[in-house]
Amino acid sequence: MSSPGTGRKALVLVVDDFADNREMYSEYLSFSGYEVMEAKNGREAIDAANARLPDIIIMDLSLPVMDGWEATRRLKADEKTKKIPVVALTGHALAGHSKGAKEAGCDSFLAKPCLPDQLVAEIRRMLEGGKPAAKAKGAR
Amino acid sequence: MGAAFPTHSRGAPEALRELAASARLALAELLLSSEEARECARGTVDWLVERAGARKALCALIDAESGTLDEVAASGVPDGQVASLHLALEEADHPLVFALARREPVMLPKGRRNGEGLRGDFLAIPLPLSENREARQGLLLVSPSRCEQEAKWAAEMLGQKIARLRASASLQDSEHKLQRERELLLNIINASPDPILLTDPEGRMIISNARADALFSAREGESEGRHRAVTLNNMLYSAALSQQAIDESGASRRELLLVSPSEGSDLLFELLSSVVQHPREGTCVVSILRNVTDLRAATEQIEENYRRLKLAEADVRAERDRLDLIIDSVADPILVTDPSGKILLMNSPAERLFTAPASDQSAEAERAVRSNDAHFSSFISNLFLAGAGLRLRGEIALVDPATKQPLPVEAVAGKVLSEHGELTAVATILHDRTEALEKARLYEQLKEASARLEEKVREATAELVRRNELLQRQHLELEQASQLKSQFLANMSHEFRTPLNAILGYTSMLLQGVSGEVSPAQKNKMVRVDSNARHLLSIINDILDISRIEAGKMPVHVEEFAVPALISELLAEVEPLIQKASRLVASTDIPPHLPPVWSDRQKVKQIVLNLLTNAIKFTTEGTVKVIVRTDEEQRELRISVRDTGIGIDPQDHDKVFEDFSQADSSVTREYGGAGLGLAICRRLARMLDGRLELQSQPGAGSTFTLVIPRKGRRR
User: Fold this and answer.
1) Most C-beta atoms within 10 A of its C-beta, which of A82, B179, B253, B284?
2) Where does the pLDDT of residue A40 fall: very low under 50, low under 70, confident under 90, or very high at 90 and above?
3) In CATH terms, is domain A11-127 a member of 3.40.50.2300?
């Protein structure tokens, strides 16, 4: 999968402290044709985003060191990284979480459990400049 | 008598005689023509000097009132000689007084006390009275004495004349006196305030005073009414007199009713009349009328007052009788004593206490009475202690003489004071306290019991408060525990989801052949892994929903939406399940022109989805039908899901809505699910101000209905 208009593969930053999930998404995204980089917490996410300016960031919210909300806020506050869409992904299916994510600057919101193909569909939609999802959709 | 008179001269006897006669005639004429003693005296002395040959003549008359002899006329006597001839008759040795006592003329002794200034030889001739000829009227003095003859004659004439004049004057005097007395008498009668009349026996007026005139006489020109009244009064008076005449009792008194001529009102008189015999008038009647009109009125007033007094007295007597009756009928003993404590009066209940009963002459009864007396007297005596006031209240321990039982009484004694504040009696009323004391005792018991009860209630209340506090604390703790539980469950669900996410993700990847092709047997097993993982997820979601609802973390978002579209969406979602159950047909019954609904679309959808899922789950073959209705006023929306499944026993209808409870726990295993679906649905329905209804019979299928207001409240 290529980044629009560049011909190169789109770079996805997956931020999750739970290795199995992080690696599962990474593998599937790679399988689906994306270049993937990983981060285990908010701090790493900010460093990685600054280092390589990914096309999109998949952000788990409950993170050690620096949580996803804080990281998103900082990314969105930085001129350099503010244009990178952030898709929040959390196992906390509470309304407050998605609201908090929106307020922090997340562009989209997905609830766990989220099947890998669902994530890919959302990434594709976001990168194509599609409208933000009206509703977080998880497997119920 | 040596006196010589020239007229009796022998010289010319005839001529002289004629001359003397004419002189005497002149004097007689003079005396006849005069009616005044002094004038007569003067005429006489002048005549003696002028016609009888006297040189000097003087007349002195006795004034009977002053008892003196005074000169009244003189002729030929120098003024100085006679001016003071004025002497008291008491001077008996005076020659003039002596001369007065003589019948015959007396020759006054010359130059010897013949009166002051009286000089010469006077012959004193007494003036005789006509009747008895006593020489008492006065003296005629002449000089010289030779004219004695003529002087004696003149003295005779003058004496007679003066005597006549004096008698006439005396008569006139007494007439005047009589007249005065009469006037005085009339004034006296007129001054009397009572009419006084002197009448003849027929009532004709002889004398009347002014008051009587006002009643009995009218003058011409006065009013007709007065004339009539006067006529009537006269008739009434005559009638009264004639009655009196019959009586013949001399003096009498009676009442006489007359008419006031001036006012026309009745006047009542007392008529006092007495008969008098008058030498000239004959029998007369003297009447005095006394106005007793006012007196009568006063008498009547007194009679009336007396009558009223009598009536009042009767009233008082009746009142007293009634009072006696009342006092006797009072059940409480009443006693009236004098200040010394002696019983003046008592009613029959008092008598039973203070007199020995006739039927019981025992010593015991006697003792009871004496004891009662003593106690009572002792009580009364307290009333006379200083500062005791007018009333005294107290208790006396008496004994009933009949039963010999103690009789506690309450006594109220009051001083009875006279108008002047003097103590006249003491009235005492006794009231049997036996019952009251018994009541008081019972009341005390009751109070005690009440206090005990109150104490118990207080204890119980305190216990309740304590328990309540405990409960509140427990409730708080429970709430906190519940909160913790919800928080814990929310955290747990997150913790469950994270590995589940990996399980589902990897399974999905394997099934998609991300890691290369898998055999059908492997794929079959992976589908089972996936299915169980999804089931686990649904259980976790249910638990999460419950804990969110309980933690109050599920807000309601009211929005407008169309029900038919929602139903289509739902049917599309359950389509795979329906297709899986090959012998199941799903259908809808939605009226056209259904109005839009205001509610939380997400929650309505969740509820109906749950109902649909359940219906499909429990219906192996037959139909599942979604029916939408509104009430006539379009206030309520009813969404029913009807199936032809196994149905639910009515006794389990309530159970199916409880948490973690499928009607039969074996059902959970057969049909899957945590059994939380309906519990969640009911809670969600309540959050939407609605409810869930169930109609079902075993084997006859079930109909679950969601009822919500068509226009839900915004929060």
Assistant:
1) B284
2) very high
3) yes
